[in-house]
Amino acid sequence: MIEKALKGNRSYWIWIVFLVTLVASGLSAYYQQRWFGLTVTGMGREASFGIYTAQLTFLLGVAASAVMVVFSFSLRRQKELAKTVIIALFMAVSAALMSMLFVVADMGKPDRVLNIIFFPNPRSLVFWDLLLLSGYLATSLISGWAMLGAEHKGVPPSAWVTSVMYLSIPLAFGIATISAVLYAGLPGINLWLTAVLAIRFIASALAAGMALLILVTLMLKETTGFDAGKEAREKLAMVATYAGIANVLLLGVQFITTTYSNLPWMWFSLIIGVVSVTILLLPALRKSQLLFVGACTALVLSVWVDKSAGLMIGGELVPAPLGSIVAYAPTSTELFVVVGIWSLGTMLFTALLKVVVAVKVDNEG
Amino acid sequence: MMNEQRREFIKKTALGVFAGLGVASGLVPAFSLEKTALPVWDEKPVPGKIRWGMVIDTRQCKEGCQQCVTACHHEHNVPAFKNRKEEIRWIWKNSYKNVFPTATNSAVSKEIQNRSFLSLCNHCADSPCTQICPTGATFKRWDGIVEIDYHRCVGCRFCIPACPYGSLSFNWQDPRTAIVDPVTAYPTREQGVVEKCNFCSDRLVKGLLPACVDACPEQAFTFGDMNDPVSDIRVVLESNVTMQRKPELGTKPSVFYII
Questions:
Q1: Shortest CB distance from B131 goes to which of A46, A48, A124?
Q2: Contact between chains at A186 and B161 (C-beta distance less than 8 A)
Q3: What pLDDT digit, counting tens, does each position of A175-184 carry?
Q4: Domain ranges of chain B
Q5: pLDDT per residue over A18-59, tens digit each?
Q6: ipTM of the assembly?
Q7: CATH number, residue A199
Q8: Residues 6 or more apart whose Cβ sits within 8 Å of residue A295
Q9: Is A75 part of the contact surface with chain B (CB cutoff 8 Å)?
């Protein structure tokens, strides 16, 4: 099936070449980081986490959120999501892969990454998080690919595929919860010391993930003519709206209890979060395609800002274990690596979607 | 013909006897023909038997004196990066408000506000850094010392925000270029791993006191086994009011301060 990703029109190849260029520039920036060390980043003594970990926090959520579609389709038998399931699974695969790459990019000794498997520390939440993440990557890829294969052959998927999909459900909730508890359990950073972080990680993940999935299906419709269906998008929008409401409520509550109100980025996240959820909630506004797309984009942006600039970078500025504040700003090397990893993930997602669309078109034609 | 069979039988029996002896000596030490030095096993460390601790009498610590810091950093090949972002510190002088940011006494005397307080790894009994380490590279020893395996560390840096005392430093670049006067008795580190005070486990094994304790001209430090009821440190702890850093977090630090 994979050969279907190698047949595309001009614009497909222009897009791929564009992404390859960005991946290459990311690789060259990463080579510099490997050679000189993490000194080339903006991180330092008091800001030991930077933009890499911020992307990781966001992408873990996006990866985990895809399980909502799996859950609704396989357990709640919502047939209108049938065309979206594989797209969601492949979004999870790409997001999980990017998460793992960001973990590796942030390591001082990436060549020793297998030490996490050779010498696991079962008391460490970092270990469990990475274990669940790799398990989730595997289950999403295997079940998505097997479902697509069955569709290609025109037969229903085997029973084991459903079992693998079920397995991904607890893994996804585990990833969101463990990452949140991991951050909440770091005594050095006060901003994260709250149990509500775990709930907020799940809510914001679902909101951003579903909004992103809506945007992906719209983009597929525009570029390939393949439509996952308006009903499917409405289902996704419903989940995104409810999760979005829960997220802005929880985020708002934190403005009262913690130092969030000192962080301008958090205000930005809260305001655009409220605006986008309002648009998605009111039928009159939601009906306009432009506002709908705008609201979904704003919701993704709201969560991205909250997870990266606010939670990760702001989190380190406010308390600083040694009582002093050192501003963190990413360097160009870091930004190139970030763009490179995002491009690699997008390239994988594009290729997988290409196969999906080709199979669906074959079957319909 | 007969002899052949007999020879074969004797050979096999002898082999069987030797094999049996081998197994028996493995299972029952008394059967072994060659004795191994068993005391090696008798002295196997008992977790929790010893708990090393330190008391710092901050009244004795002299302004401007850096002898403990210099001795420690020299002994352990700690690189001397000058910029704050990449600085590596095992032990350093700090202000009262940075060392005890959560202490409730807000109206401390001018003298205490100006006094230097030493910061170093607290070798917590309940250490968040060892719990978060995914590979066990930061680990707790049987004698309470929190140690780092520089060859196992993957450089994920989760231990840095996990530590409420800012005790861990990361090698943002190759540290070997910034070691002023390298010593051969202790290994240098590589780019990309974390490091911190090891309570001089390298000196304790030779029967020496930690470098900072030895170097202090004012005898401000008391070091010893807190589980030993007749040790110096127990006497000092029992006869003085001491403070630990951020005790409310429940990390149970092994470093105590006399204010």
A1: A124
A2: yes
A3: 988 888 888 8
A4: 2-42, 52-258
A5: 999 999 999 999 999 999 999 999 888 878 888 898 899 899
A6: 0.85
A7: 1.20.1630.10
A8: A211, A275, A276, A277, A279, A280, A285, A286
A9: no
